[in-house]
Design brief:
By secondary structure, the protein is α/β, with parallel strands linked by helices. The chain has ten helices and ten strands. It is globular and about 60 Å long.
Length: about 280
């Protein structure tokens, strides 16, 4: 018998709240995950069951709603995850931008759903010394979850977290703790990154356009209508030849003719471009 009662009605209400807030679809197969994550909140608030928690959430939204969303959202990432994307950036994107942006000397990249920061830091390592020193290269890193965003900003990782990095990268970009258990990102790697909390389904405060957007392993949780809306918004904020990278299990429907498929979940913006 479980510690807290969670009725079908409770689960449906939770799923509805999460979908309305951030577009994530919680099917029946997510019920155990929802239970385990929210049970912690129920214990912390010393409540009796999920119904009581939902009542508390409704009456204390300012204090509890962020914690509620943080508990539900999934955050799994690693340095240089899906390495082919970073190889493409180094071999194809950088040379293209050196030509296309030679007048503005400006590069903007958005890590949308940056989680605990491994993705934007991997981007910063990849772009290091890729552009002349007088170029303005910036990475925007956003996430809905304020907890993982705080960890990303601190840039402190365990030895297990940085296990995939080689000794040269570790020595160049990280400070090792005396006990060898933690690695802290050096300030000079943080200089090009701005961390901001952002709900992708709400208004975006960014005014400028981007050369590359990484939205990897995020849209997998959205329904088709939400995905379609998001892809259109990405197209609108990308430069004319801008790129969009999705996660390994994600794809874009053929109806999105504003993008062409480059393979390996990489897409390039182009007016009525034919997919390859």
């Amino acid at each position: 018998m479980k510690e807290f009662l969670c009725t079908d009605r409770d689960f449906k209400e939770i799923a509805s709240l999460v979908y309305s807030a951030c577009g994530i679809v919680l099917g029946e197969h997510k019920r155990e995950m929802v239970y385990s994550r929210l049970a912690r909140r129920i214990r912390e608030r010393k409540l009796t069951d999920f119904k009581a928690y939902l009542e508390y959430l409704n009456s204390h939204k300012d204090q509890e709603f962020d914690a509620f969303i943080n508990a539900i959202t999934t955050n799994l990432t690693s340095f240089f995850r899906e390495i082919h994307h970073f190889e493409f950036i180094k071999s194809e994107l950088v040379p293209a931008l050196l030509k296309a942006n030679k007048n503005s000397k400006r590069v903007r990249i958005w890590s949308a759903g940056c989680s605990t920061g491994e993705e934007p830091y991997s981007l910063a390592m990849t772009l290091n010394n890729a552009f002349p020193s007088n170029w303005d290269v910036k990475i925007l890193a956003t996430d809905l979850d304020s907890n993982v965003l705080a960890k990303a900003q601190k840039g402190i990782y365990t030895a297990a977290n940085v296990n995939g990095l080689d000794d040269v990268q570790l020595k160049r970009w990280f400070l090792k703790s005396k006990d060898g258990e933690n690695y802290k990102v050096k300030d000079r790697l943080k200089e090009s990154i701005s961390f901001k909390r952002l709900n992708l389904l709400q208004d975006w405060p960014m005014k400028g356009s981007f050369d590359l957007i990484l939205c990897r392993n995020v849209v997998i949780y959205f329904d088709k209508e939400t995905k379609d809306q998001l892809f259109k918004r990405y197209a609108n904020i990308l430069n004319e030849q801008g790129y969009l990278f999705l996660g390994h299990s994600e794809s874009m429907g053929k109806e999105h003719t504003q993008f062409k498929n480059l393979g390996k979940t990489m897409y390039q913006k182009g007016q009525n471009a034919r997919r390859v």
